[in-house]
Amino acid sequence: MKRQTSIAIVNDISGFGRCSITVALPILSAMKIQCGLVPTAILSNHTEFPDYFLLDFTPYLKDYLEKWNTLALSFDGLYTGFLGSQKQLAAITGMIDCFSFSKRIIDPVMGDHGVIYPSYTNEMCRSMKHLVTHATLTTPNVTELCLLTDTPYRKDFTADEIFVMCKKLAQTGVGQIVVTGIEQGDRIGNAIYEHGQFEILYHTRILPLRPGTGDVFASILAGDSLHDVPLSESVKKASAFIRTCLTTSASMEIPIHDGVCFEEHLHLLY
């Protein structure tokens, strides 16, 4: 009997604001992939709002995942986003040992613009480095690439320098790397490293910036990875989709904190 392609999504649930699981679930479902959810936290809304409620799901992760294991559930892929504690990182590393994921997409959400997120300790950074070694595809931004390769952060890395960092990261066992948010004037690019091949794809930046675009991008790459879409083709598709959604969000005057209006264009991902 043919089984539907499936993925386990590990991320927080923000009740409002189009980010994390509330982005990944509809996008991957539109890509005809069955989704299983592992919440790391439950928030009333994303953290760029001035106030929010947060329930840390860490105390429940062990029992939650043990039930999946007892039921002998299986998934073709694993897709991880923000992990907020050392215990969560340990639990997801253990999850990889228990489940036979053919594709493991790790978005190492650690920081941005040269700044590590306040919740991240040195121990957590080391654990994330270890988790990423299990990835078949990882999607760091420039800050996270520096953290993963012990490289001092700068705003003005050359393409050759990014290539060297990707090569160093690939030596840990990562199969595919996409580096997001590479700035060049009014353009922004994504670097692709695969089997020693490297390229940076640039496009014109669309303002204003909105929360959740990184989740949209990584979710499309995760879905395409499970469908064996060539990585370069997937990056071009995800970038074009986000540009279309940003343009629509502006034309509909969607508040910036509401995130990117992707629902209007999910048909493009079928």
List the main descriptive attributes of the protein structure presented here.
270 residues; 38% helix; UDP-N-acetylmuramoyl-L-alanine:D-glutamate ligase; nine-stranded mixed beta sheet; alpha/beta; two-stranded antiparallel sheet; 11 strands; 8 helices
Give a concise summary.
The chain has 270 residues and is of the alpha/beta class. The chain contains 8 helices and 11 strands. Helix 2 runs parallel beside helix 3, helix 3 (86-98) runs parallel beside helix 4 and helix 5 crosses helix 6.
Description:
It is built from 8 helices and 11 strands. It has 270 residues and is an alpha/beta fold. The chain has one domain: UDP-N-acetylmuramoyl-L-alanine:D-glutamate ligase (3-Layer(aba) Sandwich). The strands form 2 sheets. A 9-stranded mixed beta sheet has the order 3-2-1-4-5-8-9-10-11, with helices on both faces. Helix 3 packs parallel to helix 4 and helix 5 (142-149) crosses helix 6 (159-170). The protein is globular and about 50 Å long.
| Mean pLDDT, all residues | 95
> Can you tell me the CATH architecture?
3-Layer(aba) Sandwich
Q: Which topology does CATH recognise?
A: UDP-N-acetylmuramoyl-L-alanine:D-glutamate ligase
| Main beta-sheet strand count, sense and barrel state | 9 strands, mixed
With strands numbered from the N-terminus, the spatial order across the biggest sheet is 3-2-1-4-5-8-9-10-11
The rounded Rg comes to 18 Å
Q: Report the CATH C-level class.
A: Alpha Beta
The CATH superfamily is Ribokinase
List how many beta strands DSSP finds: 11
- The outline comes out as globular
Helix content: 25-40%
